[in-house]
Amino acid sequence: MAAEKRLALGLSYRGQAYHGWQSQPDGRTVQDALERALTAFAAEPLAAVCAGRTDSGVHALNQVVHIDTSLDRDAFSWVRGCNRYLPRDIAVQWCQAVGGDFHARNSARGRRYRYIVLEAPTRPALEHGLVGWVFRPLDAQAMQRAAVHVVGEHDFSSFRAAGCQSPTPVKTLRSIRIDRQGAYWRFDFDANAFLHHMVRNLMGCLLMVGSGRQPPYWMAEVLAARSRDAAAPTFPPQGLHFVGPYYDAVHGIPEHTAAMDWVI
């Protein structure tokens, strides 16, 4: 019998049809779909560990997972073989062997999320489910001034969901970048780790400032309150994309997929 080895795989998916990443009894999660495909290809039960759990309706551009298997196949066979059994809105983008010390979640140095917002008088149609939507004009400078207040190491309790399982609300938000291309706004978040609903709660506050309903310094007041009641309502999941984790270069994990060029 071949020795067991560890493989890392990069996954992209649309989240609309799934109840998030994490396996549930109804089987309608990304993890359930992936593990069914892996098991069908390998003809043995395989479990996948992900870099970051995504909620219902949230998408991923380069979700990284690892598996342990004794099956001896080349990397691209895993890509083609798994994709044969996956639904069309989930696809393995790449696969490579990694050392036994690599862990998709614990080895990550940081994670990136991107939220896409359509600013338009009418709701999205072609991009339905892939973008958030606002009909009020947004002020880029106001949002950028607000974002400065939350960059750095902070207690993010005000932006934390009630059911968050993180042992600490203290995270390091390394950057927030806000760009616009036509009617579409792109908000890029980079942190060592994120709390449950943290990006969507930050988005609710940034858009409150951007639409003129709160001044930029209000973001600092929300952060200091350390209370979810102080912040804006959670923004919907549709425009949220998990760009993916990043690791020390020694692991050689790809940080780019074709989907990243499509999601502006």
Topology:
Elements: E1 5-13, H1 30-42, E2 49-50, E3 59-69, H2 75-85, E4 90-98, E5 110-119, E6 132-134, H3 140-148, E7 152-155, E8 170-181, E9 184-191, H4 198-210, H5 218-225, E10 240-246, H6 259-262
Parallel strand pairs: 3-10, 5-6
Antiparallel strand pairs: 1-3, 1-4, 2-3, 5-9, 5-10, 7-8, 8-9
Written overview of the protein:
The chain is of the alpha+beta class. It has 2 domains: 5-107, Pseudouridine synthase I, catalytic domain, N-terminal subdomain (Alpha-Beta Plaits), CATH 3.30.70; 110-242, Alpha-Beta Plaits (2-Layer Sandwich), CATH 3.30.70.660. The protein is built from 6 helices and 10 strands; from the N terminus they run βαββαβββαβββααβα. It has helices spanning 30-42, 75-85, 140-148, 198-210, 218-225, 259-262, and strands at residues 5-13, 49-50, 59-69, 90-98, 110-119, 132-134, 152-155, 170-181, 184-191, 240-246. Strands 1, 2, 3, 4, 5, 6, 7, 8, 9 and 10 form a 10-stranded mixed beta sheet that branches. α1 (30-42) crosses α2 and α3 crosses α4. The longest helix is centred in the N-terminal third of the chain and has 13 residues, at 30-42. The N and C termini lie far apart (46 Å). The model has no long low-confidence stretch (mean pLDDT 95).
